[in-house]
């Protein structure tokens, strides 16, 4: 796998949360960078800070101290409108519990990010069909999430994250609710998209199945980067 | 906005029964408000039309002493018809009435009445005064159906009438009821008895005199007449306006309760949505919405209940309202008991303004009620929302 240029640069990052009268430090002096096309994972047990870090990279949260620059924009300095724009235009999210819009069809769920980009109906239609084909869900286009299996729901979520061809996809425990066969299917799909579209994937996980697919493994422990492993040249 | 409307529509339709229950409750508000307001407009229109046709014409001159609410003023409220009006009366464009207080003795009972002397040939008012133009040697009299019912008189009955003439002498005679008419204007029926003008003038020894002059034409600017008060049509119908305004105030309470019920349902749905759909809210934010945009989306979603309710209301309301406009709404009680010009059956009158105002009022109220709970979203932490953590 080849990568070019840093799209994420994290320097001296701290994140603290008030806990009653005390303060809980979720991230301690995190320094990391990610290049284009990486297939990387933040690995660690519950409470290690991987989701918090992923949320900051995804501009859903802001650092308490330090800097997180994502696609050239400093997350801590973005206005709500600017961070929404960053998410809308350049980021894709995949969640553990899929977070699909239950009353919308598969097509409408995948179309949603494109509605925010003000594309024409024909452009949206083509892009949605392409995305559903990538994840092998074209026959389920009119189904609603409650009619799908867990694996199918997560594939819809992947299609929704990928439909606008973002530069960066953030996946938080994407296989946690799936059985082994579905997990591998999902991961193979994401690996293929990473390879073909050069999209950067960053996972937050402690699932061995996911870890086995990662090209770069960043181990977090108590909010600090504990160790880092590369399984393929970046 | 277009996206918000599209999403809100999908969310509402997707929510199924919950949406339709709210929509149906809200649509009742639309239809009932329009119907009740239509009834009021129709009543106002009917009351004024009936008053014009039966009582006030295009306006009146009152003798300056005349007060319809004080029968004691009748003794002095008469004067010769002004020369300026004679020609108009001659042409049939105006008519004179002499009003004298009297007492009727039907079947031995005593009933206080207002004796109205009226020209049998007049055509300014719809009172069928031609029924006074008979060949009988007796004095012909005309009464309204309510008066006939209360005094138990029928056509052809003789009844004793007592009055006081200009000299203050009481006199009495029998009159024959030559006609009974039905009117929606109680002021021209209850306690009123009509006899030919010249007969009453002779009985009261007031030749050529009148108490009120009614003219047909309401548009023309009229001069003041010495000793007479000019009463324009709007002045004469002011009481109707005031009564209807009072009734409308009462009805506003009813609309308020109806709207309150509908708004409670919407508010409840919104609050429930915001708690139950936290993950969805977090997802919207993750996919590129600002929190303010999500507030907007939920507000549009709530407000769209009003739009759907307007459509649903139109589906059953238009045929219902059109049918009511045709057959009218018959009052369950005697309309004459209201003491004002009110038909037993009221025909609602709807206008574009009435429908537009109602739709606007309900939609704006719904938007406000939808916005209030949605503001909570603006304070939500998106990462907590994504986890569905109660905030």
Radius of gyration of chain A: 17 Å
- Helical fraction of chain B: 40-55%
Please give the count of helices of chain B: 11
The gyration radius over C-alpha positions of chain B equals 31 Å
Q: Which strand order do you get reading across the main beta sheet of chain A? A: 6-7-8-3-9-10
Explain what you see.
The complex is a heterodimer of chains A (234) and B (391). With 234 residues, chain A is α/β, with parallel strands linked by helices. Helices cover 35% and strands 29% of the residues of chain A. In chain A, α3 packs across α4, α4 crosses α5 and α5 runs parallel beside α6. Chain A is globular. The mean pLDDT of chain A is 91. The mean pLDDT of chain B is 88. Helix content of chain B is 50%, strand content 18%. Chain B has 391 residues and is an alpha+beta fold. Chain B contains eleven helices and 13 strands. The interface between A and B is medium-sized, with 29 and 24 residues.
Offer a concise description of the structure.
Chain A is of the alpha/beta class. Chain A contains seven helices and ten strands. In chain A, the strands form two sheets. A six-stranded mixed sheet of chain A has the order 6-7-8-3-9-10. A four-stranded antiparallel sheet of chain A has the order 2-1-4-5, covered by helices on one side.
Task: Detail the topology: elements first, then pairings.
The complex is a heterodimer of chains A (234) and B (391).
Chain A: E1 6-19, E2 22-35, E3 39-43, H1 50-57, E4 65-70, E5 73-74, H2 80-90, E6 91-94, H3 106-116, H4 121-134, H5 150-162, E7 168-172, H6 180-197, E8 200-205, H7 208-213, E9 216-221, E10 224-230
Parallel strand pairs in A: 3-8, 3-9, 6-7, 7-8
Antiparallel strand pairs in A: 1-2, 1-4, 4-5, 9-10
Helix pairs in contact in A: 3-4, 3-5, 4-5, 5-6
Chain B: H1 2-15, H2 17-56, E1 59-63, E2 79-80, H3 83-90, E3 94-105, E4 111-118, E5 139-144, H4 145-151, E6 158-164, E7 170-181, E8 192-196, H5 197-204, E9 209-210, E10 212-215, E11 228-232, H6 233-236, H7 238-276, H8 278-286, H9 291-327, E12 329-330, E13 345-346, H10 352-374, H11 382-386
Parallel strand pairs in B: 4-8, 5-7
Antiparallel strand pairs in B: 1-10, 1-11, 2-9, 3-4, 3-6, 3-10, 6-7, 12-13
């Amino acid at each position: 796998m080849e990568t070019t240029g840093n799209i994420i640069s994290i320097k001296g990052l701290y994140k603290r949360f008030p806990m009653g009268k005390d303060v809980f430090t979720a991230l301690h002096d995190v320094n990391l960078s990610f290049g284009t096309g990486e297939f990387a994972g933040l690995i660690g047990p519950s409470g290690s800070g991987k989701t918090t870090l992923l949320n900051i990279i995804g501009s859903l949260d802001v650092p308490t101290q330090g800097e997180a620059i994502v696609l050239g924009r400093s997350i801590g300095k973005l206005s709500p409108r600017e961070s929404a724009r960053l998410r809308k235009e350049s980021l894709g999210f995949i969640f553990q519990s899929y977070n699909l819009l239950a009353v919308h069809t598969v097509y409408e769920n995948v179309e949603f990010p494109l509605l925010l980009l003000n594309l024409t109906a024909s452009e949206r239609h083509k892009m949605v069909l392409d995305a559903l084909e990538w994840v092998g869900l074209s026959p389920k286009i009119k189904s609603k999430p409650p009619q799908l299996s867990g694996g199918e729901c997560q594939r819809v979520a992947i299609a929704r994250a990928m439909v606008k061809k973002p530069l960066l996809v953030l996946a938080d425990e994407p296989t946690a609710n799936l059985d082994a066969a579905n997990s591998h299917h999902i991961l193979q799909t994401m690996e293929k998209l990473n390879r073909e579209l050069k999209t950067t994937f960053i996972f937050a996980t402690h699932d061995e199945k996911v870890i086995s697919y990662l090209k770069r493994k960043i181990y977090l422990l108590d909010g600090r980067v504990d160790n880092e492993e590369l399984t393929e040249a970046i | 906005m277009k996206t918000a409307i599209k999403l809100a529509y999908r969310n509402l339709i997707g929510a199924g029964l919950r949406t339709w229950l709210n929509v149906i409750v809200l649509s009742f508000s639309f239809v009932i408000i329009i119907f009740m307001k239509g009834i009021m407009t129709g009543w106002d229109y009917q009351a004024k039309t009936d008053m014009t046709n039966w009582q006030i014409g295009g306006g009146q001159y009152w003798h300056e002493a005349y007060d319809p609410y004080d029968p004691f003023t009748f003794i002095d409220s008469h004067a010769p018809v002004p020369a300026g009006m004679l020609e108009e009366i001659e042409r049939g464009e105006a008519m004179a009435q002499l009003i004298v207080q009297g007492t009727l003795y039907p079947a031995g009972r005593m009933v206080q009445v207002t004796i109205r002397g009226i020209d049998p040939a007049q055509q300014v008012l719809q009172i069928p005064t031609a029924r006074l133009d008979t060949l009988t040697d007796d004095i012909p009299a005309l009464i309204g159906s309510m008066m006939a019912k209360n005094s138990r008189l029928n056509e052809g009955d003789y009844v004793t009438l007592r009055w006081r003439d200009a000299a203050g002498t009481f006199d009495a005679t029998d009159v024959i009821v030559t006609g009974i008419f039905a009117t929606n204007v109680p002021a021209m029926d209850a306690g009123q008895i009509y006899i030919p003008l010249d007969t009453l003038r002779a009985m009261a020894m007031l030749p050529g005199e009148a108490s009120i002059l009614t003219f047909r034409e309401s548009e023309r600017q009229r001069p003041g007449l010495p000793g007479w008060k000019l009463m324009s049509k709007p002045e004469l119908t002011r009481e109707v306006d005031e009564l209807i305004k009072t009734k409308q105030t009462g009805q506003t309470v009813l609309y308020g309760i109806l709207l309150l019920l509908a708004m409670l349902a919407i508010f409840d749905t919104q609050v429930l949505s915001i708690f139950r759909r936290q993950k969805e809210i977090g997802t919207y934010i993750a996919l590129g919405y600002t929190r303010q945009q999500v507030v907007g989306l939920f507000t549009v979603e709530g407000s769209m209940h009003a739009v759907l309710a307007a459509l649903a209301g139109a589906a059953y309301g238009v045929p219902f309202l059109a049918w009511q406009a045709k057959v009218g709404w018959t009052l369950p009680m005697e309309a004459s008991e209201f003491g004002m010009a009110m038909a037993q059956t009221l025909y609602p009158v709807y206008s574009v303004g009435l429908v537009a105002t109602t739709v606007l009022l309900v939609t704006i109220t719904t938007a406000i009620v939808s916005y209030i709970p949605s503001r909570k979203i603006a304070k939500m932490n998106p990462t907590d929302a994504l986890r569905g953590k109660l905030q």
